[in-house]
Design brief:
- The structure is a single chain.
- It contains nine helices and four strands; from the N terminus they run αβααβααβααβαα.
- The strands form two sheets. The protein has a two-stranded antiparallel ribbon. A two-stranded antiparallel ribbon has the order 3-4.
- The chain is globular and about 45 Å long.
- It is 63% helix and 7% strand.
- Keywords: Metal-binding, Repeat.
- This is EF-hand domain-containing protein.
- Residues 8-36, 48-83, 119-154 form the EF-hand domain.
Length: 173
Amino acid sequence: MSDSPRHRIFAMLDVDGDGAITHDEYLARVDRVAAAVGRDAGHPVVAASRAAHEAVFEDMDANGDGRVTFEEYRSWVGREAFERSCRPALGSLFDLADTDADGHLDRAAFIRLRTAAGNADTDAGAAFDALDTDHDGLIDRDTYLTGIRDFVTTGSSPMAAAYGTAPAPGIRS
């Protein structure tokens, strides 16, 4: 598999573009999504999401220096890491956005989630369209997580076409 999906995700997580994902950058995703959907920082779903993201960051930061380089990310990312720590963390972001707790996001909620998490809204809209294969205007939690897992681990997913696979500027294979 090409590193292009990994580059894209790494660049999204490295908010300041300095070549490393810091603890604060990574945990800020939870705060941005919570704010975007109107969840108070003290809400139990927000606390659960922060805990899940803490676990992911600890898992990714192989040398424990509080910064995850692309090489650390590349060595870490894969199906096992996804199932072990990403699935709970990404599922917790879905749960934050699923304010009525029905297990589904409509287009507006999905785009709010993905843009708050770091995607461009045009990419988020295209990803929604790609994942909404039955055209009912809803994405369920499992479809969302499977789409991301497949994009991260194999580069092939309905989201791959939506997000493209070109490396982000400034990141080399």
